[in-house]
Design brief:
Arc Repressor Mutant, DNA sulfur modification protein DndE
Length: about 140
């Protein structure tokens, strides 16, 4: 009986651990490195910007399919910090429904990061100026 309980406890710990980690695709990792070097910002900050940029799009990310999970791995707290509930509320609002924690993290948050990083990368490539790019991010009429 004790062994079964121990196995159950270990399984719950493994599931809980999986819900605190998120891996992005290799391609997005390369884009993140590029943007990080050009903008002088840490990857997790760019991921936060990417979520915001993705949320500016009307279409849901529910059907977005990342190519792989071979890229950078992030802890949940590293990505959302003390604002995790705000990120979740914004994504719930965007989806028009209340997501379970399993849906929100890692699927929807990851998909917003993946889509947002592509959008940020494409926009930076057009501008090629860190200052103009960052100023452009706050131009809400643009989207």
């Amino acid at each position: 009986m004790k062994w079964t309980k121990l196995k159950t406890d270990i399984s719950l710990i493994q599931v809980k651990w999986m819900l605190t980690k998120l891996k992005i695709s290799e391609e997005m990792s390369e884009y993140l490195d590029y943007l990080s070097n050009k903008l002088g910002l840490r990857r997790n900050i760019i991921c936060r910007l990417a979520v915001g940029r993705s949320l500016a799009e009307v279409k849901s990310v529910k059907d977005f399919k990342p190519k792989n999970s071979s890229g950078f791995e992030f802890n949940r707290y590293t990505l959302t910090g003390e604002s995790d509930s705000i990120f979740k509320a914004l994504i719930n609002q965007h989806e028009g429904r209340k997501l379970t924690d399993d849906q929100y993290f890692p699927k929807f948050l990851r998909n917003h990061i993946e889509r947002g990083v592509v959008l940020l990368y494409e926009e930076y490539e057009k501008i090629n100026s860190p200052v103009d790019f960052l100023v452009g991010l706050v131009d809400f009429n643009k989207y």
